[in-house]
Design brief:
This protein has twelve helices and eight strands. The chain has 251 residues and is α/β, with parallel strands linked by helices. It has a single domain (4-248), classed as TIM Barrel (Alpha-Beta Barrel), CATH 3.20.20. Strands 1-2-3-4-5-6-7-8 form an eight-stranded parallel beta barrel, surrounded by six helices. Bound molecules: 1,3-dihydroxyacetonephosphate (13P).
Length: 251
């Protein structure tokens, strides 16, 4: 049985002081989530990871938004796995479409980062999704299938059982244009079958999230799809009231 997972991606938002305020205010919701067997978490900027870790409930997942695949070295501006581990950060978003678009994050780079995380018993949240042009050309499965196969090639089934995959159609991110729950289910089910072809029945343990304009009003509909195990939420995860509503609407 896969536990539901609600994860907020704060992107480049929130001052450290605002992150602290949110972390403190989120304590009761982490408790509520736990009581209802739901995992919740947020992915703040690097600068606020330690703050959120300190002031949020220990039941709140705190994820980084990126990591470098090397342990240390001459990589200006980067942060490594041991640096995250020292802060007890075990979860990392990999391959978000904004990083694929603006930072040349390829499937190959994602693979190297996922490998570094899995070797350290950390949890990658591997983001995949097609652009509007690819969607309109009917290429969604080809693109998403390629991202899954290339990003996760060669790992052993026992390594990937805690991995999370997030399907985020690029055309629905921050646009208010949701993919219908039917599209979300179809593609998440397709991703699970790709995972099954690669890793066998471990595919039934891997959580697959939908992301893209998820709001309190539509979160329940997505989570009622059999292959959608949770949501990766941008804008609607930023305000504590809206984060609370997202959670309460899936209890
Ligand atoms: P929005 O929820 O703001 O559309 O962002 C989705 C997203 O990119 C989460 O990673």
């Amino acid at each position: 049985m896969r536990r539901k997972l609600l994860l907020g991606n704060w992107k480049m938002n929130k001052l450290n002081s605002e992150a602290k305020e949110f972390a403190l205010a989120s304590v009761p919701f982490a408790k509520l989530a736990k009581e209802n067997n739901i995992d919740i978490g947020v992915a703040p900027t690097y600068l606020s990871l330690a703050t959120v870790k300190e002031f949020a409930s220990k039941d709140m997942i705190v994820a980084a938004q990126n990591v470098h695949f090397k342990e240390s070295g001459a990589y200006t501006g980067e942060v490594s796995v041991p640096m995250l581990k020292e802060l007890n950060i075990d979860w990392v978003l990999i391959g978000h479409s904004e990083r694929r678009t603006y930072d040349n994050e390829t499937n190959e780079k994602c693979h190297a980062k996922i490998e570094a995380l899995l070797n350290n018993n950390m949890v990658p949240v591997y983001c995949v999704g097609e652009t509007l042009a690819e969607f309109e050309a009917g290429r969604t499965k080809e693109v998403v299938g390629g991202q899954v196969r290339e990003g996760l090639a060669g790992f052993a089934p026992e390594q990937v059982k805690d991995l999370v995959v997030a399907y985020e159609p690029v055309w629905s991110i921050g646009t208010g244009k949701n993919a219908s729950s039917q599209i979300a289910q179809d593609i998440c089910s397709f991703i699970r079958e790709e995972l099954r072809a690669m890793f066998g029945n471990v595919a039934d343990e891997i959580r697959i999230l939908y992301g893209g304009s998820v709001k309190p009003v539509n979160v329940k509909e997505y989570l009622s799809c059999p292959d959608v195990d949770g949501a990766l939420v941008g804008g609607a995860s930023l305000k504590i009231d809206s984060f609370e509503e997202l959670l309460k609407n899936i209890l």
